[in-house]
Structure to design on (185 residues):
């Protein structure tokens, strides 16, 4: 049994026994367990998702918390929002190869910002995901990373809540950031 298959079995066991309201991800030999997102977190995802929906390429659909995997680098991540080929979701199972995702969107948790800003930033680049959008309600900012190569993204664009941000192909639209909500201080 491969290292990846051993990890996958272990993660599935943890998922079966995890308390309700907890989601589990893994990166290498590290398991990350997180509570279900807050109302503000969910609202911000919904506002972003609604805009992406108008520009999603044919043959792709929204998916929330899908398990994106890259067995050759032993990573599995569950982004808040992604767009995957319909064909990938009809294969069955509960994982999808990360290279099939067009974009991943994460809303930063008030208690664990390092997971999105450091760990996932590295992992999504390694996994070859072309666009990584981080919505940070702590700071009132949105950051888009693109052009992944090995362990990092080479292009970064930052905007504040209230501005707009250009989302490149294959979506090709201006994301309106005016409705996004900050966490209470």
């Amino acid at each position: 049994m491969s290292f990846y298959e051993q990890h996958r079995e272990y993660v599935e066991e943890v998922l079966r026994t995890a308390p309700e309201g907890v989601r589990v991800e893994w990166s290498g030999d590290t398991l990350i367990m997180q509570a279900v997102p807050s109302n503000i977190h969910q609202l911000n995802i919904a506002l972003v998702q609604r805009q992406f929906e108008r520009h999603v390429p044919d043959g792709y659909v929204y998916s929330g918390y899908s398990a994106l995997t890259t067995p050759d680098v032993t990573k599995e991540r569950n982004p808040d929002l992604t767009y995957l080929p319909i064909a990938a979701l009809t294969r069955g199972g509960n994982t999808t190869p990360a290279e099939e995702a067009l974009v991943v969107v994460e809303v930063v948790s008030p208690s664990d910002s390092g997971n999105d800003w450091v760990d996932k930033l590295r992992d999504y680049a390694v996994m070859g995901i072309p666009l990584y959008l981080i919505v940070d309600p702590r700071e009132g900012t949105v950051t888009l990373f693109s052009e992944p190569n090995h362990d990092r993204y080479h292009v970064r664009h930052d905007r504040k809540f209230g501005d707009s941000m250009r989302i490149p192909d294959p979506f090709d639209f201006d994301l309106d950031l005016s409705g996004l909500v900050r966490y209470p201080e």
Summary: The radius of gyration is 16 Å.
